[in-house]
Amino acid sequence: VGAFGGRAEIMDHLAPLGPVYQAGTLSGNPLAVTAGLTALRLLRETDPYAELERATRSLIEGLKEGAAAADVEITFNQVGSMFTAFFCSGPVHDWTSANRADRSRYARVFHGLLESGVYLAPSQFESCFLSTAHSDEIIGRTIEAVSSALRRC
After folding, report:
1. How confident is residue 25, by pLDDT bands cut at 50, 70 and 90?
2. According to the 3-state scheme, what is the secondary structure of 42-77?
3. Nearest alpha-carbon partner for 131 in 65, 39, 67, 66
4. What is the pTM of this model?
């Protein structure tokens, strides 16, 4: 949900009062607003954040073990349920350190994972996100797929 505003002499230029048409894909769409409000209500009621962080830590620990078994250097950055893997020794905290990552290995692992039905962001510099739909079973299967791809790639 978003909004914008300004002084009356500027806002009066927007339709329907003025000649400037403003639109967005979901502007004023009651279904989109209802979906957003429902999502916010469910998040408040279920408070999934601690479980999401636990699940993300579990995934990362499993991925670290898989990388170590494949003798692959990997560094993870994580905030809550968002994380990024860098194929380099850590830490990664800025462009210079992120640029040390082996992007060609990331590409090989990315394509290897596609063959296993695991889809990651296609760019080394994008983040991954866990959701409440990622069960421990799915996390386990993901760890297995990544570990296998790391050994092959």
Report:
1. confident
2. HHHHHCCHHHHHHHHHHHHHHHHHHHHHCCCCCEEE
3. 39
4. 0.79
